[in-house]
Specification:
- With 532 residues, this protein is mainly α.
- The chain has 25 helices and no strands.
């Protein structure tokens, strides 16, 4: 092979495995041939399968590049048009603003979040209580903040405590330089405690990661697909919360009960307690950090807490679009903590923008689905089901697809299909609202079964702490399995039996109001005039 070809092969998709690169190239080659021989409809469905493959293989290569190549090819093959792609992007601008500004805003509140979780870690002695607090606190924070940021904070805590113990277990003090990746330096007497500490951290981080899903499903800002669904339905913060409550509340209770069950029984890799020697070291380190904290740093924590209160108030009363509230958090949290240099602000956007770019690729694939009417048979099948089974079928369909691909993509597709059915007069507005609840809960709850379905899980799996605590893909799947079973089953029961009567009760008490189909239709017509 010539040096030029070798360089091209090496550079294509970087460090992705060779078989993966060949697979993507094969996709790109067969798609034009397939369109010429089998037609656009078949080629469109194959493209969807290929795109889901890139999502499922996210650990091999971030989906932006291979998925983006497929989307680019779809436009070249005229499976969709740039105008349709732009319309989808413009129609979901609020979701993009959420990811750009809200995630970046929370970046400047990490110190306060680290402070809260560190206190929990070092002050609570009972592993069951600590696990419940980590899960519940992650749920509450994820209901108002971004689940990825909450997960990032928890990861930072885990890495911090692991490095501190690893350093001390290697015979060094808090101030010494140390490579915590090298276990050879750990003294023989401390190695058993190290293994036990790893198991302790694994279980605690998994409880917290599931907690982000429990809270993330409840509010319009908890997950990216939530605001997408809420915007389509015309729901504001409190209405979204109340509409989801008949499903999310029993799932939350079941999730917390599962925490207790797993810690009591020790099944699926849970139940390991923190060794007393490790706890003593972590408490000494926390006291050391508290003692050296300056007045300026303490005041920064107070400012971040005040900004967090503003964030909650702004979201609850819908004082501005979510993305703009996130921008206000950036301004307030930086202006009053002395972060005024461009170089210190830029890193806040590094976490969100790759996923924002991927979301735009999602919308390009959704444009293919819409232009080629790929989901019309699926939609017709669901709409042919009678009564509550129709809503439950949507929950199951979204759950299964979200477990193997990406819940934002699945939600984008299904809410668009139900919107089309509403505008065509196939369903009424109240049915659409019930379907939106089923789509949101279906994409958020069963998706905890694999790292592919939940961005927070994937983030944890690919983070710096995963190899330290020996958290592999299969171990995460095993540890998530009991949660996936209990939460998905309770979610299905709630959707099938409780959602309709509970929603009627919410109407009767005035907590939510009936909407007309014309409200959404007019909104979409306005978008059509400007973007499509």
């Amino acid at each position: 092979m010539s040096p030029t070809l070798h360089a091209l092969r090496t550079n294509f998709l970087g460090h992705a495995p060779g078989w993966y690169k060949i697979t993507i190239l094969t996709f790109l080659i067969i798609n034009p041939l397939l369109m010429l021989t089998a037609g656009k409809y078949v080629a469109g469905w194959v493209l969807i399968g290929q795109f889901i493959f890139t999502l499922a293989m996210a650990l091999k290569c971030y989906p932006l590049q291979p998925g983006g190549l497929l989307a680019f090819e779809a436009v070249l093959l005229e499976l969709t048009t740039p105008a349709t792609v732009y319309f989808e992007i413009a129609h979901n601008l609020e979701v993009i603003l959420l990811l750009m500004f809200m995630v970046a805003g929370i970046y400047f509140m990490k110190d306060m979040l680290l402070f809260v979780f560190t206190k929990l870690m070092t002050r609570v002695k009972s592993k069951i209580v600590l696990s419940l607090l980590f899960s519940f606190t992650a749920a509450v924070l994820s209901a108002f903040l971004d689940a990825l940021t909450v997960t990032a904070v928890i990861i930072a805590i885990g890495v911090g405590f692991y490095s501190v113990y690893h350093k001390v277990a290697s015979g060094k003090d808090f101030h010494s330089d140390h490579n915590y990746l090298d276990d050879e330096t750990v003294e023989p007497l401390n190695r058993n405690n190290l293994e036990q500490f790893r198991a302790f951290l694994r279980s605690l981080l998994m409880h917290a990661a599931v907690g982000t899903a429990l809270g993330g499903v409840m509010t319009i800002v908890g997950e990216p697909q939530n605001i997408l669904i809420g915007t389509q339905a015309g729901w504001e913060f409190m209405e979204f919360f109340f509409r989801m409550l008949p499903v999310t509340l029993p799932v939350l209770v079941m999730g917390l009960m599962t925490v207790v069950f797993l810690e009591v029984t020790g099944l699926f890799g849970y139940g390991t307690k923190l060794p007393p020697a490790v706890l003593k070291i972590l408490q000494d380190f926390e006291a050391h950090e508290t003692k050296k904290r300056t007045k300026n740093e303490s005041m920064s924590l107070v400012v971040q807490a005040v900004v967090a209160v503003w964030l909650v108030i702004g979201l609850m009363f819908h004082l501005a679009p979510v993305g703009l509230i996130g921008l206000s958090v950036i301004v307030l949290a930086t202006a009053f903590t002395g972060i005024i240099e461009e170089g210190r602000i830029g890193p806040a956007f590094e976490e969100a923008l790759p996923f924002t770019s991927l979301l735009v690729v999602f919308f390009a694939v959704v444009a293919v689905i819409n232009d080629q009417a790929l989901f019309a048979p699926v939609t017709e099948f669901v709409l042919d089901i009678e009564g509550q089974g129709q809503i439950a079928a949507l929950y199951v369909a979204n759950g299964l697809l979200s477990a193997i691909s990406d819940n934002v993509f699945v939600a984008t597709v299904y809410i668009g299909e139900m919107m089309t059915a509403l505008q065509a007069g196939i369903i009424d507005r109240d049915t659409f609202d019930l379907m939106a609840v089923a789509i949101n809960t279906g994409t958020n709850i069963p998706s905890v079964s694999t790292p592919n379905g939940q961005a927070a899980f994937l983030f944890l799996l690919t983070s710096a702490i995963a190899p330290l605590i020996r958290l592999s893909y299969m171990r995460m799947v095993v540890m998530a399995l009991p949660y996936a079973i209990t939460m998905s089953v309770v979610g299905y029961i709630a959707v099938y039996f409780w959602l309709v009567p509970a929603t009627q009760y919410l109407y009767d008490t005035g907590l939510i109001e009936h909407h007309s189909a014309s409200e959404i239709t007019m909104m979409n017509d306005g978008a059509n005039k400007t973007g499509h």
